[in-house]
Amino acid sequence: MNIIFVGRRHGQSKQISLDSNKLVTAGLSVLATFLLVFVSGYFLGDSGSPTLVSGVSVLQKEAVDDWQQQLAEQKAEVLVVKERAQQQIDALTLRLGEMQARLLRLDALGQRLTSEARLEKSEFDFTARPAQGGPEDASLSESYSLPDLNDLLAQVESQINDREQQLELLNEFLVTRNIREQMVVAGSPITGGWLSSRYGYRSDPFSGRRAWHAGVDFAGKDGSDILAVASGVVTWSAERNGYGNLVELNHGDGITTRYGHCKEILVKTGEIVQKGQIIARMGSTGRSTGPHVHYEVLKEGKSLNPEKYINRASR
Known about the structure:
Layout: E1 2-6, E2 13-17, H1 20-46, E3 52-53, E4 56-57, H2 58-116, H3 146-183, E5 194-197, E6 200-203, E7 210-213, E8 216-219, E9 225-227, E10 232-240, E11 244-252, E12 255-265, E13 272-273, E14 278-282, E15 292-299, E16 302-304, H4 307-310
Antiparallel strand pairs: 1-2, 3-4, 5-8, 6-7, 8-15, 9-14, 10-11, 10-13, 11-12, 12-14, 12-15, 15-16
Helix pairs in contact: 2-3
């Protein structure tokens, strides 16, 4: 095979003779070069693209995995926050329950103190909500945050502690005062009847001679009530020479009262009685001319005139 090359200048030509071996070698060389260029271009052009796995690139799969991991971490953080918030809510609920119980106790104590102190219920009504009011402040219209609520609860708890101490002191004072009032000997031992014999010297109703009378006599209806003129402890509750059936009360501070000639005794020795309590029934037992109560007041064992105690008002 001959190949003729014709030049541009001067029309000169050149002839190359190729046999079949050279022609095959040249063709193979050209084909190999073409394939090399094609394959190199393919790999070079595709080197920046990620490998596909089941239709999804490796980079996309890594991004999805990363997002899923972040979501899992955020869910775990949310659960932790919820648990902490629930613990704080439970703690606040417990504190509120304790404070409500203490407030109920304070309300009950306040009502009792109001009654004992004889205060007007309209002025100190512990069953009603306290009167409050005032213009609205727009700057304070926001809701409380958790720290604000904790501070507010601590402040309220401190106020409750102060009120408890104050009411306890007031209660002790009123109880002490009430006990003292109850122990003050004052008033009459009967609700009906009349003074039939005074304190001091008199003519003895049996002998007619001048004799000392250590108490006063109140005549009345047989079986009528005899009252304790003060709170005290029963130190005698039985028959006694000259007194018939006798009740004796110790009121403390060396003061003792006696109630003689009782038809029936309603209290026992060692019993604590309250002021105004019915302790016996009027009768005529012992050295007596008729239904009456012989009433005595003693200080350190020495008799006193009961009339000044009868006419004395309770403190």
